[in-house]
Design goal:
The complex is a heterodimer of chains A (about 170) and B (about 190). Chain A is mostly helical and about 170 residues long. Chain A has one domain. Chain A has helices at about 5-10, 20-35, 35-60, 65-80, 90-105, 115-140, 150-170. In chain A, α2 runs parallel beside α4 (about 65-80) and α4 packs antiparallel against α5. The N and C termini of chain A lie far apart (about 35 Å). Chain B is an all-alpha fold and about 190 residues long. Chain B has helices spanning about 1-10, 20-30, 35-50, 55-75, 85-100, 105-125, 135-155, 165-185. Classes of the chains: A mainly alpha (about 170), B mainly alpha (about 190). Chains A and B meet through α1, α2, α4, α6 and α7 of A and α1, α2, α4 and α7 of B.
């Protein structure tokens, strides 16, 4: 199956790139655990960062270690969820902002058409923010079940995955 | 989310990207095709269920995190003698804990499980592919490991039924016996 380019290709990009999925899930879990009001601030900061990152890509920003930053963010968020630490807003918002910037920088459209590239960047922005909001909503619902154990387990899996891949990139 | 990701992923994206679904499937199958891993993971869930709350969920949370630490050691090629023996011993020890219905304090249970998680992580880490689908592969095997714990917990919940306690202890004895076979094989290498 070949996914379409343009806005639809951009919409699905955040859920078709493993590092993005892991980072969005980690951040969504943190946002969902305290959806109001910190969760909204987390999603807002992520949206701002994503817009900035995609803007930088549109201006021709070069290659960055954005994928590693996303995995580091996933590690932090996963560990906080697994250890049942409620992220203070002063930490969660900057993490969300940096994650947004990194996700934007890690989403360069491979298109030769300017209009198609712009459409793809807009799609990526909508897809990233929408996905994060959905994960946060689901996490906020799950958080009420079994004293939030499912989110702690998810956090443990997210952190373990991110740590292994970071080790592969930095150590191997 | 992960299911959506694996079923919806495409090998040919306009943004680029690798064979994500294949990477996830490969990682998911990795622990499932190692009977020594399967036995030990199920035993972790079984022992957690036998110990009750909070061990029933703390052990499956602790294991992947410590396993990742062991994985880092494996990726960094930090020498660890007799990893296969350690994995086989994990099946024996954890199986015996279940079979003998050992009521260890939570801290001791975490320490025992974590010690063995390092061996499992080291083995997985040393075999991780260095390709672009490393995230998908790692997520696959972490999820598979977690689901094996869930299987153990599911079996362990049988302790609430008449005769269930004995059945669970017999499963633990079976895992310990299988561990002895794995140990013999590991020592002969």
């Amino acid at each position: 199956m070949v996914l379409p380019a343009g806005i639809v290709g951009g919409l699905v990009y955040p859920v078709s790139t493993p590092a993005h999925v892991v980072a969005l899930t980690g951040l969504g879990v943190i946002a969902g655990r305290n959806l109001v009001p910190a969760g909204a601030a987390i999603i807002g900061a992520f949206a701002l960062g994503l817009a900035a990152g995609l803007g930088a890509i549109a201006w021709g920003f070069g290659e960055t270690p954005a994928s590693d930053v996303l995995l580091a963010s996933a590690t932090l968020c996963g560990l906080m969820a697994a250890l049942d630490i409620t992220a203070p807003v002063s930490l969660a918002v900057p993490v969300a902002l940096v994650s947004g910037i990194a996700l934007g920088l890690d989403s360069p459209p491979e298109s030769i058409s300017l209009s198609e590239a712009v459409a793809m960047l807009i799609g990526t922005a909508c897809g990233g923010i929408g996905t994060l909001a959905m994960i946060a909503f689901v996490a906020s619902t799950i958080a009420r079940l079994w004293r939030g154990i499912l989110l702690r387990v998810a956090g443990s899996w997210i952190a373990a995955t991110a740590i292994l891949v970071l080790a592969l990139r930095w150590v191997a | 989310m992960l299911l959506l990701w694996t079923t919806g992923a495409s090998p040919a994206l306009a943004h680029g990207g690798g064979d994500i679904a294949a990477g996830f499937a490969g990682g998911f199958g990795h622990p499932l095709f190692g009977p020594d891993h399967v036995a030990a993971m199920v035993a972790v869930g079984l022992w957690g269920a036998a110990l009750g709350s909070p061990a029933i969920w703390v052990l499956p949370i602790a294991f992947p995190l410590v396993m990742a630490f062991g994985g880092v050691l494996g990726i960094a090629a930090v020498p660890m003698p007799r990893v296969g023996v350690g994995i086989a011993l994990s099946a024996i020890m954890l199986g015996l804990m279940v079979a003998l219905a050992v009521r260890a304090p939570l801290a001791v249970a975490i320490a025992v499980v974590s010690a063995f998680a390092i061996f499992h992580g080291h083995a997985h880490g040393a075999e991780l592919p260095r390709g672009a689908d490393a995230v998908a592969f790692s997520a696959g095997f972490v999820v598979a490991t977690g689901l094996l714990h869930v299987c153990g917990i599911g079996l362990g919940l049988a302790t609430g039924w008449p005769g269930g306690r004995l059945a669970v202890r017999l499963v633990g004895a079976g895992i310990a016996g299988a561990g002895a076979v794995f140990l013999r094989a590991a020592l002969s290498l």
